[in-house]
Design brief:
The chain is an alpha+beta fold. It has three domains: 472 residues, no CATH class; 133 residues, Immunoglobulin-like (Sandwich); 132 residues, Immunoglobulin-like (Sandwich), CATH 2.60.40.770. It is 40% helix and 18% strand. Strands 14, 16, 17, 19, 20 and 21 form a six-stranded mixed beta sheet that branches. Strand 7 and strand 8 form a beta hairpin. Helix 2 crosses helix 4, helix 10 packs antiparallel against helix 11 and helix 11 runs parallel beside helix 13. The longest helix is centred in the middle third of the chain and has 34 residues.
């Protein structure tokens, strides 16, 4: 009993933490729960499986609330429908008030994390209807997670029975590897979050890891399994594979690994059997596994074939979900690998609620140390090649979970080829193997006598992270804003009220000076007042206009952080509403960014009102091309001409010649200057000119900062009657109000005559 107490404590802590994560996450906000629970509810109320119709799901998603997940294998949903069959869940349509503008998959955004509009009176305790059913299913799903924790312990104990003979110390109990592995699973914040949600991932994790443990035990040379006992084990494994295939489609990948392990076991026990007879035994055991699995799950594949012409139903699944445009590159995968890591350890909500950054730094270090230690452990044990003779080698079975993890990882990569879904939680069917291998790797960095302390230390840190995360990340993400009174708007944020339609007006604004790069974000806070709301459910927007008034960034969502629709606003209420608008990566830079906010009606697409609230600055890129004709001429007020391009250098009358000037700011100019470009003949009077502010007014000199280089093209239209000849170009800057030019600091006047002439033929 004493030996089991640590595992019992881990399980008790897991259940408490799982309950906290479940209660911290509002209903339908957990991982794809807004799709998974409607699937359960449909089975509960219709005693049948939903039939996917892509046209209905895409055009009227409220009539297809399970969306593509209605094509998932049905075991989890049937099980939970039976468990909640006694509950009246007819209120689901009212409960599931979708926030279709939620920032799904964008944890960098501010607020608007909620997938659903929550009304406290519907969801508070005591629960009833669909809310009660969801909480009950979450609790039952925690049981699958607890089973996976136990499987992790058993797998690590079986994989590393003699581990502990480390450097410089007496052997330590192999239980510390098993307990440490159980901790890595039980106190993983993402595993807790997924296990406390209505989705099939927790059951898939249980099935995948149960199959993994069974494979290891079949392959274990210390276990005397032959004859009927082996047949019984193989039959049981076939049952688990079949149930897994009815739980999640990714568990189809178990089948080839199961067949490999069984074949190796039969081959190792061939003794006096001839090779043909041994191969016959292999085929017989394979047939038993495949037939058993198909007997359990085959009906579902046949149903899909009949309904959709695809036994996996992936054709309709993908038709509803959509596909990513283009083929992902290695750079794409590396860019998305951050999401993969985060979603293995903890990225919550709709993949949009992050833990503190230091949490990911800790888990990155833990993972790297574990992987490096595992490589060290493998190197100390010689040739790791999995072959039949290797099965008789002590501590050799690590390759089975390693291969299963590799298969899962490849399947995740393959799925990201179709869609943006590089999520670490999809590895949970192999989490027991991952935790066991990481833990044995971590233990390589300490002497044996310190390994119990290492296990305890990892447990304490992970437990602390798991305790803190719901309170600092999940709960705050779903706290709705409180309405203010007009007098609560800060004095320095108040503006003259501007009507934005729908009985609302803008009464306050916070837009501090901001300089951003492409890919950066402009932040603005708007104060909306409900004067006489007309009951419409409107969407707000904040957008950025760059060069030529092109849209270079926008945010569309319900106001009040997406949590309180305008249809619920009451006269006199004021809502503080922060926006973070990302600048497009392909935005022309530098530029002034004009910031506009407003409201529109999503049903009609009609804009109710737009307000220009100010400007931000899109800074020049860090590096610019060198000018074709470099030079250095310093002007007053901190401006330097660094060079120019002229294209073409030979032109005809009536053509447009582009002169691109390369300005550098030595310091911030005090005035918004105009640039003059004069084409001169023999005299001083220009025969053509193109005066304009830098970049056509899109980046005035008042925005320039010291050290910036501004590439400033100026088109110059040549007159139709311009005589052939060689012409000079003269440039400079002047103050449009006073017409005073900036003087050259070298005392050579107030104009720069460029060395390159323009030849006109």
């Amino acid at each position: 009993m004493t030996r089991r107490r640590p595992l019992a404590l881990i399980l008790a802590a897991y259940f408490v933490l799982g309950g906290v994560y479940s209660l911290a996450t509002p209903v339908l906000e957990a991982s794809d729960e807004f799709k998974h629970y409607p699937y359960v509810q449909y089975v509960q109320t219709h005693h049948d499986l939903p039939v996917l119709n892509p046209e209905t799901c895409l055009q009227t998603p409220d009539d297809c609330p399970w969306l593509q997940d209605g094509g998932q294998p049905p075991l989890y949903y049937i099980t939970m429908a039976a468990a909640t069959s006694w509950i009246d869940t007819s209120d689901l349509r009212d409960l599931r008030w979708m926030n279709w503008h939620a920032f799904i998959g964008d944890p960098a955004q501010v607020c608007n994390k909620n997938l659903v509009i929550h009304l406290p009176e519907r969801e508070r305790f005591p629960w009833h209807g669909s809310v009660l059913a969801i909480h009950l299913i979450r609790f039952l799903t925690l049981g699958f997670g607890a089973g996976t924790v136990v499987l992790t312990y058993l797998l690590a104990r079986d994989l590393f029975p003699g581990e502990g003979e480390g450097r410089g110390g007496a052997p330590s109990s192999p239980r510390y590897v098993a307990l440490g592995a159980a901790v890595l699973t039980a106190f993983n914040p993402m595993f807790l979050f997924v296990s406390g949600a209505v989705n099939n991932d927790a059951m898939a994790a249980f099935m995948g890891n149960l199959a993994l443990l069974m494979m290891v035990r079949i392959a274990d040379p210390r276990r005397q399994i032959a004859g009927r006992r082996l047949v019984g084990r193989v039959l049981a494994l076939g049952v688990v594979v079949g149930l897994g295939m009815l739980t999640k489609l990714s568990l189809l990948a178990l089948l080839p690994l199961v067949l490999l392990v069984v074949a190796l076991r039969v081959w190792r026990q061939r003794s006096s059997l001839s090779i043909p007879r041994c191969l016959g035994f292999v085929v017989g055991h394979w047939s038993l596994i495949i037939l058993t699995a198909l007997l359990i799950s085959g009906w579902w594949f046949l149903r899909n074939w009949r309904l959709y012409g695809d036994p996996t139903a992936l054709n309709v699944f993908v038709a509803i979900q959509g596909v990513r445009t283009g083929v992902p590159t290695l750079r794409d995968w590396l860019g998305e690998f951050g999401t993969f890591r985060w979603t293995y350890w903890g990225l919550f909500g709709a993949v949009d609620v992050m833990a503190p950054r230091w949490v990911y730094a800790f888990f990155d270090l833990l993972s790297l140390a574990g992987l490096a230690g595992l490589m060290l452990w493998i190197a100390r044990r010689g040739d790791p090649t999995p072959r039949p003779s290797f099965l008789a080698t002590r501590n050799s079975l690590w390759w089975i979970p390693a291969l299963w993890v590799a298969v899962l990882f490849i399947s995740v990569l393959r799925w990201t080829w179709v869609y943006f879904s590089f999520q670490g939680r999809l590895m949970f069917p192999g989490v027991a193997g991952i935790s066991a291998l990481l833990m044995v790797g971590l233990q390589q960095w300490t002497a044996s006598r310190f390994r119990p302390a290492l296990t305890a230390g990892v447990a304490l840190v992970m437990f602390a992270i798991a305790v803190v995360t719901p309170f600092v990340s999940i709960l705050p993400a779903y706290v709705p804003p409180e309405p203010l009174a007009l007098s609560d708007v800060p004095l320095d944020a108040r503006v003259e009220p501007v009507d934005v339609g729908g009985g609302m007006r803008l009464v306050g604004l916070e837009l501090p000076p901001q300089s951003v790069a492409r890919g950066g974000s402009v932040e603005v806070v708007v104060y909306w007042e409900a004067v006489a709301p007309d009951g419409g459910d409107y969407v707000s927007f904040a957008r950025l206009l760059g060069r030529g008034m092109d849209w270079v960034g926008d945010v569309n969502r319900r106001p009040a952080c997406g949590m309180v629709p305008t249809s619920l606003w009451r006269p006199g209420q004021v809502w503080r509403d922060p926006y973070r608008v990302e600048v497009a990566e392909d935005a022309a830079a530098p530029s002034r960014l004009r910031v506009e906010v407003g409201l529109y009606d999503p049903k009609t697409g009609r804009t109710l009102g737009v307000v220009a609230v100010g400007e931000a600055k899109l800074a020049p890129p860090a590096a610019v091309a060198e000018p074709a004709h470099p030079l250095t001429v310093e002007l007053a007020d901190g401006v330097t001409l660094r060079g120019y391009d002229l294209a073409p250098e030979v032109a005809a009358p009536g053509e447009v010649v582009t002169l691109t000037l390369y300005w550098e700011a030595r310091e911030a100019p005090a005035v918004d200057y105009q640039v003059f470009v004069h084409l001169l003949g023999e005299g001083l009077e220009p025969v053509a000119q193109g005066d304009a502010p830098p970049l056509g007014g899109d980046y005035p000199t008042g925005l320039w900062a010291p050290g910036e280089v501004i590439v400033d093209p100026h088109p110059l239209l040549l007159p139709e009657d311009l005589p052939p000849g060689r012409y000079r170009l003269s440039v400079g800057m002047y103050d449009l109000e006073t017409m005073a030019r900036l003087a050259r600091l070298d005392g050579s006047g107030d104009a720069i005559e460029l060395p390159t002439p323009l030849d006109v033929h």
